[in-house]
Hints:
Protein name: Elongation factor G2
GO cellular component, one term: mitochondrial matrix
Pfam family, one: GTP_EFTU
Low-confidence stretches: 11-22, 41-55, 397-406
Keywords: GTP-binding, Hydrolase, Mitochondrion, Nucleotide-binding, Protein biosynthesis
Largest sheet: 8 strands, antiparallel
Domain Tr-type G: 1-284
Amino acid sequence: FVAVYIVNVVAIADDVKSLRAVVNPDISKIRNIGIMAHIDDGENKMWERGITIQSAAVTFDWKSYRINLIDTPGHVDFTLEVERALRVLDGAVAVFDASAGVEAQTLTVWRQAEKHHVPCVCFLNKMDKPAANFSIESIRQKLKANPVLLQIPVGSGKSFSGVVDLLTNQKLIWKIRTELGDDGRVFESKPLDQSDEPELLQEASEARTALIEQVADLDDEFAELLLTDFGDNFDAVPSVKLQEAVRRVTLARKGVPVLCGSSLKNKGVQPLLDAITAYLPAPNERHHDLVRWYKDDLCALAFKVLHDKQRGPLVFLRIYSGTLKPQTAVHNINRNSIERVSRLLVPFADQHVETPSITAGNIALTVGLKQAVTGDTIVSSKASATAAARRAQNDGGARKKRGEDANMVLSGVEVPDPVFFCTIEPPTMSKQADLANALNCLQREDPSLKVRVDPDSGQTILCGMGELHIEIIHDRIRREYGIETHLGPLQVAYRETILHEASTTDTLDRTVGERRHVATVDLAVRPVDIFSSGGLCELDFTEEVEGQLSPEMKAAVENGVHTSNLQGPLLGYPLLGVSTLIKSVKVEPGTVPVMVSACVSRCMLKALRLAGVQVLEPLMSLEVTVGENHLSSVLGDLAQRRGTVQDIQSRHDNKVLLATVPLAEMMGYSTVLRTLTSGTATFSLALDTYEAMNPQDQSILLKRMSGLL
């Protein structure tokens, strides 16, 4: 379950070394990279309904480099898998369908890469499709990126046979070899000369000149070299100098190199691997401030958990510093626990190969860590974490002025809130414990899966990122754990927010036994923009309160606010875009923190009701590619789903419909679309934002939730 076009070339290339040839290469020779694509643009070897769902890791050597490759999903329901992969990568390859350009989910994944400041290389795939169009305009316009064209294709569609490398002026041609099969193993490389077609020579010359001018605009060092030594003759610019400049531009994220090919036939994949090693960063070129305090001690991040029936939990670790060896004890800072790594593996192609050690910069697969979950920081010992914290505190100056604490935990993976939920029931009560165990294992593997028990009905509630996400979980429980579960109807996870500012005061006076507990809280709530706050609720204290509260009482106040944020006053959905300011907290002696939390929650409830509560529903960006003869049917269906059409574009013989639609209206859409278009249309969804429901729809929802409909 890896990116098949990379693995195919690795399997057949003559210059690929075995894993044992270089157990721990120099860190400058390591590349931790990911493949980002829109559903099937990468032509990956996929599983579970034809989509790469879990980020698959594979290690291989290419020439003198070690490449740790992580493939990521191209479906909106599995955004966390992309987030999880990007958190531990140093670079990424964005794969686009040359006939379609930038599509909806590509944009979502690209934004995630930008958030983590991951340098990228672009690969225009499927150049051998009849509708292939070698254009980088969609990269520039939709991604707001600066594409740096390093190749031009030789032919297109069925006549696509290779590429021209603009840095070296070499023509690379993949010829069909019937005796060996058309597997991309062999290609010819020769300099462009006068025997080539005049149109190709002119196009290559103009493209190389444009490349040199573009790189000079983006890199001052190269511009100075150009003006000093090659102002009269761009053709004389050495390819090595141009390559160095392109690398600086890529690492600075001022531009993205663009290559092309056809991964299905492995055409253009060898140059892509060369580009990965030439332009994407080594681990020591990506700076993680916290890691330097550990020096040579182990510091690693657990970024994925898998469950193996024979070996138990398998935990993927990114090693940031130090060395990890099997049969050694490690300290999990997040769990405050010590565990032993019994075995250390490298995911080499489709095998897990044991290794005696893994050094900084690499990705490891560990056996024996039974408590670690995604996002945990693993270090060699509690003492090493304490020493790292001491070094950070002693750094003085700027750090202390910023008021940062010496938290020695690596920033983990941001887990998005679920948007769908449903009940799940075992076939018999005797299977309840087995189902609970299965759900516990699946939650460790997938933190975006949430499981809770309804306090009123006692039913188990499954919360996920979409229809497909929940369907896959349901299928895995049946297939891997042998439990035939029943799913209730899917429901949308709405959110609540407030309309206005409001302030209030509340006093809790309660006697328990012989002790009297008295707390008075004065607070204010106000709405904040969902985009600027990232959809999160904010909490602030006045300086006076900040100075008065003990750490224990401050934690109690935070807990009270957090509890209120999880359950809005209208329908009990979590809050979005609410900022709370604690203006005053007065606590009588003897009052326990839990009473302070209760007082804060009660005060919050009063303030929220005074501010006016509004239901928010998740709004999806929808992109439908459909033939013109079916367009009117699709538009009519969207109108019934409260959809808003943003644009209709032409793409070859098809129309591309861009719209926003409430998630609640998209259940079962794939089946309906297949019926409307006789199976010829495709679509993709991405969560856009949360939007206030109109009064009529909110009234219907309130009645439904109240059992009146």
